[in-house]
Amino acid sequence: MNDVARAEVEDFLYHEAALLDAWRLDEWLALLTDDATYRVPSNDQPESDPKAALFTIADDMRRMRARVARLKDPHAHAESPRSRTRRLISNVRIVEQAPLRVEANFVVYRYRGNEDVRTYVGRYRYTLVRQDGGLRIKAREAILDAMELASLGTVSFIL
Amino acid sequence: MSASRIVLNEPQQHRFEINRAALVDAAIFREEQERIFERCWLYVGHESEVRAPGDFRTRMVCGRPLILCRDSRNELRVFLNTCRHRGTVVCREAQGNAERYTCFYHGWTYDRDGRLYAVPGQSAYPPNFNRSELGLKEPPRVEAYRGFVFLNFDANAVPLREYLGSAVENIDLVLDQSPSGRMEMIHGTQEYDNRANWKLLVENSYDDYHLLTTHATWLDYLKSSGVEVKRPEKGHVLPSHGLGKDLGNGHGTTDNVNFRGRPVAAWIPIYGDAAKPELERIRAELVQRLGPERAKRVADTNRNLLIFPNLVLLDGSSVSVRSFQPLAPDRMRVRAGALGPVEETPLARQVRLDSFLTFYGPGGFATPDDIAALEAVQEGLGAYKEVQWSPLTRGMAKQGEQLNTDEAHLRAFWIQWDKLMRAA
Hints:
CATH topology of chain A: Nuclear Transport Factor 2, Chain: A
Low-confidence stretches of chain A: none
Shape of chain B: globular
Order of helices and strands of chain A: HHEEHEEEE
Strand content of chain A: 35-45%
Number of domains of chain B: 2
CATH class of chain A: Alpha Beta
Mean pLDDT of chain B: 96
Mean pLDDT of chain A: 96
Radius of gyration of chain B: 23 Å
Low-confidence stretches of chain B: none
Helix content of chain B: 25-40%
Number of helices of chain B: 10
Largest sheet of chain B: 8 strands, antiparallel
CATH architecture of the largest domain in chain B: Alpha-Beta Complex
CATH superfamily of the largest domain in chain B: Naphthalene 1,2-dioxygenase Alpha Subunit, Chain A, domain 1
Oligomer: heterodimer
CATH topology of the largest domain in chain B: Naphthalene 1,2-dioxygenase Alpha Subunit, Chain A, domain 1
Structural class of chain B: alpha+beta
Number of helices of chain A: 3
Radius of gyration of chain A: 15 Å
Distance between the termini of chain B: 16 Å
Number of strands of chain A: 6
Shape of chain A: globular
Distance between the termini of chain A: 32 Å
Structural class of chain A: alpha+beta
Number of domains of chain A: 1
Number of strands of chain B: 21
């Protein structure tokens, strides 16, 4: 199989970011494989295993679907009214071709109500697979740089 | 405003109201630092967080920088993290193991026992300079109950065990989950700010009245995953019977018939089929060790326990140890982690952590809505001068037991708060 080029990966990550920023969550779910995982480790244990350490988020596909269903419900008060987010993704690197492992830096600006902006800074770690001709997400981890969430408060939207 | 006008308590008239200034006013905030936080037993951490000589964790409690650590004899110690010379924090890492604590500013060095070990250029000090008097200071009182370490800034405070009073029975119920009676903090800490007054989180932590409305989506998640959520019986708001209990000294707890999943030992489909035999094994061990009645008490009831003023044990979908530090009238920092039996199998540990995340924490399916609620309250309290009073009277006209959706246990908190604020 031919190597995947960085440009294709970047296009894919930008597309994902655009879906999330637009709250097109069902379309976002369609980018994930059936066995996909989404994780946000605790800030003080950025390199851990959710089987042995407490994470902020450690979803399998079932819980991700439930998360999306929840976020679409107006009774998900933390995101009702919804946050407005804007994701900037940069420094995209393919660190391995098989499996296709990708790392990227992110800045996610989050506006909630009339509050000051909350800025989430960190890096993504992805495992991607090719499926039906396109790329799909098998694993997605958002590792925050902040020592603690502190003034960021919650991760009630999809980071 | 004097604190005596904050809590209006007229039991005969069934009136109990909180003046909202208690949640907003800067002078009251400063006063409660002195009258409550500098006089009550405050949670520092758990003994399992430091295990070997030299292990340390730095903490902030009541604005004081602290080192929770093990000394050279592996005794648990708490030092005030401030150099005796100019005041610098001598330990600037969140956690680790230290042979010595060296202040980087002028190089004063302390050993694991807090003794001042070396002072560069000591000969320039006058003859009355005495190194043995200049060790790291400790809070006036440090005591522990079954692994939970507390401090008190009041040297004359009653012993911790006496302060905890009947709350220990509820702590013991949590610790009975472990065959050896020993639990440990699991790696991974959730630390986050809440833009609300700390007392709002006290109330929220064991007020079950808000469950159906604030956590509607969490209940939907449980239902959709195959958990039976019954319609409330007559006189109830929630799917199961539960009590709210005043435990004295401002402590209180809910005491509920469980309907949710619990790692000890109430399996729900979310845990997966592979975990079913493991949870059956855990329950069998409970029954064998504690007898059927006590085992049922441990596994089939859940509780949210407040240790006055700012420690909460959430023994529900998992066990969370949550404490919070007031930073300003409208701001607090929350620190929460997961507690588990020391002898837990990897599979049981995995279930415990997974179950934790279904409800608790800044990325969970429920806690973010609690935080949103508290922040919405705080915003509304901007009108505290025009809308002065909040009623807290649920269950007040009733004789006998109080439900978890009544407010007797919350009133107990406020009565203790008021008593301390008005004490001489």
